[in-house]
Hints:
By secondary structure, the chain is an alpha+beta fold. The chain has one domain (about 1-95). About 35% of the residues lie in helices and about 35% in strands. It has 2 helices and 4 strands, in the order αββββα. It has a 4-stranded antiparallel sheet with strand order 1-2-3-4.
Amino acid sequence: MPELVEKYKELTKEKEALDAKVEAAGNALALELCPYKVGEVVKVKGYSFRGRSCRITNIYLKTGWKGDVEWAVRGILLKKDGTDAKNAVGWDSWNDKNQ
Length: 99
């Protein structure tokens, strides 16, 4: 029984290492595919707050329902004076091209 526990722990560590590599590769691909950059101020293209200004805080990769690879962004809305508001917004490549 103890050897099974050790094998489980070993496989879990290997899986975590592979997951980290997959996430890093996905993030690199998302940064390459996405036309926006982290920190850039753009107009929101998602459903909520469409047309308001936001500052992009995160760009990541996601898989669509058909298995296609898409980028997505998250950002913080900006107040009229240019400071950060409390609302977080996000949209993906589908929203971006179907505006």
